[in-house]
Write a structure and sequence with these properties.
Helix content is 69%, strand content 10%. It has 684 residues and is α+β, with helices and mostly antiparallel strands. A hairpin with a 2-residue loop joins strand 6 and strand 7.
């Protein structure tokens, strides 16, 4: 009998509060994915390349997990509070019929345990499946290939998910049960009453609204100017201004509804009821709306930052070379022959680089051309770099043209006394440089003047970090020989793998296989014994780590915050609707039908959600711009415009998801109103 009662109540609770049940399942999936991150193919690969950085990332995961549990606790608490209030009369009747409070509390614990087990039984398999899909997709994107994938199941992630999930659910239930046990039977059986509308001073409320807008505007300006990243006090200032601005904005926004309600000639009937309901929910719960808006803001900002950063680091740089050897061509060819690597190799190419042999160099013409450009942070950095450019690197024209040929690009043609400017992709300020080069500035090598071409070149000349050339010059082979010391010229051998081999194995697997062969010979041991080499893996390893650290963690947090924000808003509205159900019942006696009441409630939900989402969406534009002003590398600063375009698309997408969620809450509201109509028919 007791088991049947628990089972029946649990089933009804899941059906009536399916939105909350689904939110918890999504949370379980998110928990498992972040805790099982070490089993992802990309992370396993990164451990071999960036093990120290990966360990630091893993140190961050427990903090993310703990923060998520802390925030998710409030979601469970609010939803549990709504469920108990909705079942108040039912629980009171159990006590009236002789059930002991201890047995009633045991029943609630049993229902919670059963629903928790069901959500875990559903959520864990989905989490494992989605984790595998993510692993496969990321492996395919970065070139690891499906062949390098193996099924993974993290037992520790399952235990962590179950433990954390049960902890927050039962702590919330214990607190709620403690409050419930203090209520008398009469209090439980009484009908829910609406909360009294607060008396407000319109002048004070209007001032709060204006001050809130001003504080938010100041916070936005400080953020996009980049001042926030200079000192900790500016960071604290923008956080304080932002929080105060949002809370004051929502505490004052209700005055706008007062203005609408003054026009009584235009609003009557159910429209007046709708606006009164909205006005009351806003005035009674402005802080709840503010918190919900802040949670949505954090979620949108995390999505709008993580997605573009991940996209940029997977697309900004073309893959050209697979290997670079610091040796001469004969040495590399000997190694290839010794290891029988001919079948794996597409071609080998020389890249000659030398430093200008004395300090009689002047970039004054280029500096003046840059100084004429519009002021920007990039311009300041570029001018600072050029000021210290006294002995530039020179790159052989024939070597660089071979690099362009591999990519299918047109070769560089230099006339007499012409040179081309080269900038490393990670130090590239293309928009400023290109405008400056339109003037064809002149640089001086010893006493010879060379006019720069109007194009700046920034291809990766080698695979990774053997040499970093922030700014250099591409010159003809004759000029290269003339201005470089033969003993100070570095010859690098770039090597590309066979395309069919790469297609069959996948880029990462192909390079790994060749690496294993190269590491078996003493000729390629390290930079002190034999020939030093680096592969594309080192380069992509660093990029992938940044992508994982920036994208995985921010998107994970975004999912958690979005779930919590939406559930809090949905539950809060449904709680308010439950407390004011007598009003809906009264309207039915005045002739309102089911469709009319649903329309009124749906309009309330639209306004209620739109207020929080609109403020969050507008604020997120400035928040993301603030993140891009400080939490990006020097190379990424040039792409801020592109990043913001992607972020804007992400913000629009999140708003569309919010509309879907809003529609789900509307359907839950329709069901509540249908029950009220059924109660009315039973009374008749």
């Amino acid at each position: 009998m007791f088991y049947d009662l628990v089972n029946r109540n649990s089933k009804r609770n899941r059906k009536e509060n399916g939105l909350f049940f689904i939110s918890l399942i999504i949370s379980i999936i998110a928990f498992y994915i972040i805790l099982s991150l070490e089993k992802q193919d990309v992370i396993i690969f990164l451990k071999t390349m960036e093990s120290q950085a990966v360990r630091k990332l893993f140190l961050l995961i427990p903090t993310l997990y703990g923060l998520s549990l802390f925030i998710l606790f409030f979601l469970v608490y609010f939803a549990g509070k709504y469920q108990l209030e909705r079942r108040s009369r039912e629980l009171g009747m159990y006590l009236m019929l002789g059930m002991k409070r201890s047995k009633l509390l045991l029943m609630l614990f049993a229902e919670e345990l059963w629903n928790s087990l069901l959500s875990l039984i559903i959520g864990i398999p989905f989490a494992v499946f989605i984790s595998e899909v993510i692993s496969l997709v990321t492996a395919k994107i970065v070139g690891l290939g499906i062949i390098g994938h193996s099924f993974s199941f993290s037992f520790s992630a399952v235990i962590g998910t179950i433990f954390g999930y049960f902890i927050i659910r039962f702590i919330a239930l214990i607190i709620l049960s403690g409050k419930f046990s203090k209520k008398e039977v009469v209090e439980l059986l009484s009908e829910s009453q609406s909360e009294k509308k607060r008396k407000i001073n319109k002048v004070i409320v209007s001032i709060k609204l204006i001050v809130g807008v001003i504080l938010l505007s100041v916070a936005f300006i400080i953020g996009i100017k980049g001042i926030v990243w200079r000192e900790l006090k500016f960071m604290a200032l923008i956080v304080i201004l932002g929080l105060l601005g949002v809370f004051l904005l929502f505490q004052g926004i209700g005055v706008l509804f007062e203005g609408i309600l003054k026009k009584k000639n235009n609003i009557s009937g159910l429209k007046m009821f709708t606006f009164r309901q909205i006005q009351e929910s806003v005035f009674l719960k402005p802080n709840t709306l503010a918190v919900s808006s802040l949670l949505v803001l954090i979620a949108i900002s995390c999505f709008a930052y993580g997605v573009p950063v991940g996209y940029l680091f997977n697309s900004k740089e073309a893959h050209i070379m697979d290997y670079t050897f610091e040796a001469n061509k004969e040495e590399v060819e000997a190694i290839i022959k010794e290891l029988d690597l001919e079948a794996y190799i597409d071609g080998i190419y020389e890249m000659k680089i030398g430093m200008f042999y004395n300090d009689k160099f002047s970039a004054e013409g280029l500096i003046k051309a840059v100084e004429k450009q519009d002021d920007s942070q990039g311009k300041e950095i570029l001018l600072n770099n050029l000021q210290y450019l006294d002995r530039p690197y020179l790159i052989s024209l024939s070597s660089y043209n071979k690099l362009l040929e591999i990519q299918g690009k047109d070769p560089i043609k230099l006339n007499d006394n012409e040179a081309a400017l080269y900038e490393d992709p990670d130090f590239n300020f293309s928009s400023i440089i290109e405008l400056a080069l339109k003037e064809r500035p002149i640089i001086t090598l010893e006493d010879e003047e060379y006019k720069l071409k109007d194009i700046c070149y920034s291809d990766n000349i080698i695979t990774d970090s053997m040499i970093t050339i922030s700014t250099g010059l591409i010159v003809s082979d004759d000029v290269f020989k003339k201005y470089t010391d033969e003993n100070n010229v570095s010859t690098y051998i770039n090597m590309t793998l066979d395309k069919d081999f790469v297609k069959k194995k996948g880029l990462m697997q192909a390079i790994s296989e060749v690496n294993e062969k190269l590491n078996t010979t003493e000729a390629v041991y390290d930079e002190y014994n034999g020939v030093r080499y680096e592969s594309y893996l080192q380069n992509i390893g660093r990029e992938l780590f940044y992508t994982v650290a920036a994208s995985y963690t921010t998107i994970y947090l975004a999912v958690i915050f979005l779930i919590i924000a939406n559930t809090v808003m949905g539950v809060q509205f449904l709680m308010h609707q439950q407390k004011t159900k007598k009003r809906y019942q009264s309207l039915t006696y005045l002739g309102a039908n089911y469709e009319m009441l649903c329309k009124s409630a749906r309009n309330q939900i639209t306004w209620y959600f739109s207020l929080s989402i609109a403020v969050a969406a507008v604020s997120s534009i400035f928040a993301v711009r603030t993140l891009f002003a400080g939490m990006v590398t020097t190379a990424m600063k040039e792409y801020v415009g592109k990043l913001m375009v992607i972020s804007a698309s992400v913000i629009v997408l999140i708003c569309m998801i919010e509309l879907i969620y809003m529609n789900i809450v509307k359907k839950s509201s329709d069901k509540n109103i249908l029950k009220l109509m059924d109660m009315k028919r039973e009374d008749n």
